[in-house]
Amino acid sequence: MTDAILHVAGLTRRFGSVLANDDVSLHVRPGDVVGLLGHNGAGKTTLVSQLVGLLRPHAGTIQIGETDAVADPAAARRHVALQPQAQAPIDGLTPRQAIELASRIRGLTARDSRAAATRLADELDLGPWLDRRALPEGGGLSGGIRRLTSFAMAVAAPMPLLVLDEPTNDIDAARRRLLWDAVRRRGDEGSGVLVVTHNVAEAERIVDDLVVLHHGRVVAAGSPARLRGTQDNDLRLDLQLQPDGQDPTAQPQTVPVTVRRRVRAGRRVLLTVPTAQAATAVTWATTLRDQEHIDGFALGPVTLEDTYLALTTQPRDTGSEHIQEASHV
């Protein structure tokens, strides 16, 4: 794929007997934001570590622009900006100093670095903390402000490829929205963006394509609409179970609607049902709630989260491939 800024093909990485990445292929084009989804341990950070040369794959290729990143990782890194999953080591610095330092390392002038710090502080609502010093052991700045500073350091100087590993960790809801908007903006400005996340609902709003990893393998890839597929005509019935965990849907024959898919995630049971049976589903769920078999319910459109849970869950021994138990949400 010659127009891709990042092209990964057949990437395989083992740790002893554990296959962390198993024949992974994906690509990111300039201007695209690609989400890499997967539960903890799916192999996302292992993949990122290979992209930036911190780990060497046992098989497969990584092409960043015109550079073979496996053969020459140092050259490839000149085209990549990374926000790692771990917090940036900024103790002793203010966010302004950290952003300016990252900008200078990437080749911006002192004047442009100062302008970048000011612009990013406005974009991410960092102003009140911009000149507050980070202290050892997490002092001085909260985890969320440190995380935003790390993102700002990664994007301060425009780069062809931007790799963000769980950029929203520790960030409050209001600033998460600002950050997601900032991620989308980098794509719109021409960078290829690979964003690692487990936040399916928020990522869906800004990505062009998604890659889902499960046990080290790509189990789905495509646009959010494509991954949802024909389920756009179905509805999701979300049942909130009682604390005792008794599940009134455990026996499929007792459910009075057609269940195309059932996923249990903790005290939630997600049922995919036909739109034509919405009234029956609501009547049944209302009865369950009134009889205190469930805490509550909600009926709405099928979302990408439903697809993601179905792709990353293990079928239970129930006689139906659509009855699944979530291993992680």
Give a verbal description of the structure:
- By secondary structure, the protein is α/β, with parallel strands linked by helices.
- It has two domains: 6-226, P-loop containing nucleotide triphosphate hydrolases (Rossmann fold); 228-326, 2-Layer Sandwich (Alpha-Beta Plaits).
- The chain has helices spanning 44-51, 73-77, 95-105, 110-124, 143-155, 173-188, 200-204, 224-228, 278-290, 304-311; strands at residues 6-15, 18-28, 33-37, 59-64, 67-68, 80-83, 161-165, 192-197, 209-214, 217-222, 234-241, 261-265, 268-274, 294-301, 313-315, 323-326.
- The protein has a six-stranded mixed sheet with strand order 6-7-8-3-9-10, sandwiched between helices. The chain has a six-stranded mixed sheet with strand order 14-11-13-12-16-15, with helices on both faces. A four-stranded antiparallel sheet has the order 2-1-4-5.
- Strand 7, helix 6 (173-188) and strand 8 (192-197) form a beta-alpha-beta unit.
- It is globular and about 70 Å long.
- Its main location: membrane.
The arrangement of helices and strands along the chain is EEEHEEHEHHHEHEHEEHEEEHEHEE
Provide the β-strand percentage band: 25-35%
How far apart are the termini? 33 Å
Beta strands, count: 16
Please, how many domains?
2
Stretches with pLDDT under 50, minimum 5 residues: 315-329
Give me the CATH fold name of the largest domain.
Rossmann fold
Using the 3D structure, state the CATH architecture of the largest domain: 3-Layer(aba) Sandwich
CATH superfamily of the largest domain: P-loop containing nucleotide triphosphate hydrolases
What is the residue-mean pLDDT, rounded to a whole number?
90
GO molecular function: ATP binding; ATP hydrolysis activity
GO biological process, one term: response to antibiotic
Membrane topology: Peripheral membrane protein
Main location: membrane
